[in-house]
Amino acid sequence: xTTLWSGRFEHAPDAAxxxxxxxxxxxxxxxxxxxxxxxxxxxxxxxxxxLARDEGRKIEAAxxxxxxxxxxxxxxxxxPDEDVHSxxxxxxxxxxxxxxxxxxxxxxRNEQVSVDLRLYLRRRIPLLRGGLEHVIAAxxxxxxxxxxxxxPAFTHFRPAQPVLVAHFFLAHVASLRRDHDRFAAAMIEADxxxxxxxxxxxxxxxxxxxxxxxDLGFSRVVANSIDASSDRDFAATFLYxxxxxxxxxxxxxxxxxxxxxxxxxFFDLSDALSTGSSxxxxxxxxxxxxxxxxxxxxxxxxxxxxxxxxxxxxSGYNKDLQEDKQAVFDSEDTASGSLAVVKSVVDGLTLNxxxxxxxxxxLLLATDVADYLVGRGLPFRRAHEVxxxxxxxxxxxxxxxxxxxxxxxxxxxxxxxxxxxDRVTPRASVAVKRTPQSTAPSAVRRALTEAQAWLRRVAG
Length: 460
Ligand code: ARG
Known about the structure:
This protein has about 450 residues and is mostly helical.
């Protein structure tokens, strides 16, 4: 195997160490981007007068052919090469001889790997955003189907207050929409063209980097060649966006694992997305959701790993940076696979209104009782005390607010009137909420309409 740098050495590289350090087994995923970058570089060299017109044309045609073959046959992108850059250059030289040997003029693999990864992310991030849109659409559909059904919301995982089931689904929509924005920001960060940086100091050929950026679809050029050769902030930002997306999917998974379980029974998982037990015939397990929760650890790990790799590096390219790619690829695969399976799970959920409405009633109406007293002029802190004592009594007797007779209400406070009975229901509790982000049915309806409009906008 000849390398791009064998001229410097008397002896061949240690085979095992070379194999261990080579990246082609994984950076082959950058094949298309590497060829695209090389075609643009050939044009830039042509414009700079480094390549004669017919040389440029030959190189471009050969690269286009290499791209075509690699696209139509994944097995074509293979060989004993050190990395994808060496692979593409070897094929080019095999086809064109010395003309092919001119392509790397004024260019370094340090900037090449940066431009490849940036192009790759700009190609792939939109797919992840699409995956997010599909999950969001499934959640919005569930919110719409749920209508005004009620369920309890929890704090400290204890029943807190009644909310609309739609409000619960839209809560997850809100976090995933932030991820959608975060990936857009990661796109913008990757959108800087590093070629022209050379290995570290820039290039001595007359490269029109603005034209090169336009050619490759970048809207700007990097600011500093030293920084550019080791800048992986854009990869870290991508890993952060992926990690937070996984955190949100994991929390949704956790909610659904609990709410679909026998203890709550708020939703039913579709059979198609559940698994059985080899031993216990009654089991219907939420394996896909557990796997999403489990795989979240890898996405978090990749972010931590890359930041750790970056933190100790001296300025300029260091081979440590080769570690960025497996982190990016695995995080991407983890997020895209998880998005797809979560979408299917959400699509397949059936709401059990009887269970959710029953669970939305009971002592979790205590805040509404306190608010009633506030309405009668009692300071809130006093009202809290009164209702707290009432709750203590009811809990001890195994009763709920609905079972209190008027004289018992009055015993707790003479501010209670007969109208308290209508005020203390889950339906009344949500109806009196006022703020736009609240679970008031009118607010939830508006939020749902807004989310549907957002989906139409991003899809169009
Ligand atoms: N495989 C290398 C990487 O992923 C490509 C850049 C190599 N540059 C170098 N000077 N060895 O980072």
